[in-house]
Description:
The chain is α+β, with helices and mostly antiparallel strands. The chain has a single domain, classed as Cytochrome-c3 Hydrogenase, chain B (Orthogonal Bundle), CATH 1.10.645.10. It has 13 helices and 8 strands. The strands form 3 sheets. A 3-stranded antiparallel β-sheet has the order 1-2-3. A 3-stranded antiparallel β-sheet has the order 6-7-8. The longest helix has 29 residues, at 92-120. The chain starts with 5 loop residues before the first strand and ends with a helix.
Amino acid sequence: MTTTTKLKLNLGPQHPSTHGVLRLILELDGEKILSCEPDIGYLHRGMERMAEGLTYVQYLPTVDRIDYLAGFFYSELLCRTVEQALGVSLSERVKTIRVTMLELCRIASHLLWIGAFLMDLGAVSPFFYAMREREMILRYFEKLTGQRMMYNYFVFGGVRKDIDYLYDIEDIINIIPAKLNDYEKIISENPIFIQRTKNKGILEPELAINNSITGVNLRASGINYDLRNSDYLYTDIDFKPIVMSGKDSFTRYKARLEEIRESIKIVKTCITKLKKNSNFEQKLINPLTLKLPDGEFYSEIEAPRGLASVYIKSQEQDKPYRLKWRTGSYYSVNLLRKLLVGEYLNDAIAISGSLDFILPEVDK
């Protein structure tokens, strides 16, 4: 007669595949996961508390760091909230510039995820391929903003300067589609990758909704919800949400690939609009007199890792009385409590990696 002993295992926080300082406390029966308890807080930087001591102008350059792989989205969120509170509207060219930067940033974020996800599964080459394409986008960001990651390019009422080097963007969006086809040849039909991802980490629609999952992870479970459909920046842009029904880790991978292709189409549309409309007008908000009226203000956006939002409570000062960020990664990490139960230890990293969470978004 054989007996098994339950084992508690700490996965992280030093593990290279936990995508940051995340500790997963796993209870195992043999190699089968009985429970999972995510332990967060190792990276906590007090981004929300810090906002209460800084003016809006002082706080704006720091918000790129909430998700350092998608900094444009959090700059846009803070700018958008202040602009709507003060009734400031953007010109068409400025809106198109912002969409261009957001979608290029989304592509860069998804490219890094593809490389890191394959690295989690032991495939080294795809990581270097994905980083090669991402590097083209980062070089463009550096050329335009002076920064590769923390851009501080969006400002209250507009952008720091008119967009330039459109031919660089055209080169990027003309090169990447063929590279995505190469990825698919290497990855999508690889029997080891298929075995590690298909029918693994099944995320049922009801479970996703009940756990506040948004973004690609939700749409890969068959739920057609993309905030860009109602975003005022995307009003004049033909856009098709990527919705798939596979619900597993493999489908989440395919959905991100297709989302890159859709983002490329959006960028192409933006380039056409920028060439037709060269009228660069801005009504920038004076940073010396910037104060929000008394009240509560809220904005949201479709970020690469799901719905992101910011809530500001103002008391007619030049700084928030209270500020709260909502990020997709926080809910994806919490989902591991349920998604990993019943799976096996060797699939834990593959399943968690397929959710594309990043710890700065969790430890705000």
